[in-house]
């Protein structure tokens, strides 16, 4: 079957993005603060660790948004939240005792740069005081160029931030109006210049295809404007329209959304434009300049995937701070309370706010390894993925579906090795889902495969 026919056939499947396995809809209250406390207390000081800090506030709502965030025009709720956040950071540090080495810190949101420059410096200092942040640690921050002030741009550089992730999505004015996010190219360029002047060299741009009124031409024009600013990386996501879960998405006119064929054309046009400009494809939705750490990790076969997408972060533990933040410890996943008020109340009681999570089994670990390698490398050798046992059983269970995909040309089977041809890169989630033991039990609405 021709590659375009294959892509078209599977493009409409609703599948997880596999930033974790099992995925977040399968987290339960069986893992909450008492269990999380035990996990933290048993974390060896030798464990390389990453930190995630969630700031769930924005000044305005983008109608496409799928993040946990609330809108505020006032600063008081943000200040109150930061008090709770600091309580959690100190509590986690006290429980761990001997602090592990921290190699990566990621501030996500919402809009982390909604807080003041002074508050951001204080947060970074607090993290450095309670954890062993190594020299050269990677510190990344998600920003909204529309609200970034010169003072905040300077503060990010002064605090040691090494990379920022820009929300761009599109530069098409008609599409911007349809998603309630008006952002000029000049605003974005001004932010880039200010950050680079402040010493922040790493730049990632987030783009979205499949938005209302979006066309192939507008996607290409957005890429061309981005290339003028030459970011190190770009993340290109397909819009996930799930108004049942995100009520603000109901403001988007569904008849304005591109159909599956148009979404596929947009994704391929963006990919072709970026590859032509010298970017390397990373996984199925990231792009990086040659010699970027993502590209080097992919070339060495050590690319990873976490809640921020593709990453060169190979740390064995991730500690999440803030409302809705998700962490990963050797025993499994843990997620904090999502509602800000309840998050603050829980941190005031015992410092922790974990309300659900997942305790990993050996079978989960094996499947997680298989899925991650497929997502990162477009191939996996199940013979080498058997460290957790039972790889032959998993392969036998998956073989009927794998053989059907092989007959269509979506995969190649070479003994225990599964390979995807380059032309089918965009459908890697389809192949990965074969190894998801929980997919058919979830009622969650996922995003389209393309």
Overall description:
- The strands form six sheets. The chain has a nine-stranded mixed sheet with strand order 10-11-9-8-7-6-5-2-14, with helices on both faces. Strands 15-16-17 form a three-stranded antiparallel sheet, with helices on one face.
- Helices cover 38% and strands 22% of the residues.
- It has 450 residues and is an alpha/beta fold.
- It is built from 14 helices and 21 strands.
- The protein is globular.
- It has two domains: 22-359, Alpha-Beta Horseshoe (pyruvate-formate lyase- activating enzyme), CATH 3.80.30; 362-448, Arc Repressor Mutant, subunit A (Orthogonal Bundle).
Residue fraction in strands? 15-25%
What number is the mean pLDDT?
A: 92
User: Which geometry do the CA atoms define?
Assistant: globular
Structural category is alpha/beta
CATH topology of the largest domain: pyruvate-formate lyase- activating enzyme
CA gyration radius, whole angstroms: 21 Å
Biggest sheet architecture:
9 strands, mixed
Tell me which CATH architecture of the largest domain applies here: Alpha-Beta Horseshoe
Proportion of residues in helical segments: 25-40%
What is the strand arrangement across the widest sheet? 10-11-9-8-7-6-5-2-14
The number of helices is: 14
CATH class (first level) name of the largest domain = Alpha Beta
CATH homologous superfamily label of the largest domain: tm_1862 like domain
- Count of domains: 2
Low-confidence stretches: none
